Amino acid sequence: MKKASLEEMLKSLDGQGLIPMHMPGHKRSGELCDGLPYSMDVTEIRGFDDLHGMEEDGCIRSICRLAEEAYDISTRADSKTSAYPLVGGSTVGILAAVRATAMQLRRSGDEPEILMARNCHKSVWHAAELARLSAHYVMPTADENGIFGGVSPIEIDRLLSAHPACKIVVITSPSYEGVISDVGKIGDVVHRHGGLLLVDAAHGAHLPFLPNAKSVFDGADAVVVSLHKTLPALTGCALLLLPSQSLDSSLVARELNVFETSSPSYVLLCSIERSISLAMQEKMRFAAYVDKLKSARARLLNLKHLSLYSQSKFDCDEGKLVLVIPPSVTLDGKALTGGSLADLLRLRKIEIEMSAPRYVVAMTSAWDMVRTDSGYASPNIDAFIDALSEIDALLDFTDLPDAKDFSAHSLPTVRIATHDALERPATAVPLDAVSGKTSACYVWAYPPGIPLIAPGEVFDNSVITSIKNHTDSSISLRIQPDCKDGFWVI
Question: 308 has which bridge partners?
Answer without folding.
Answer: 323
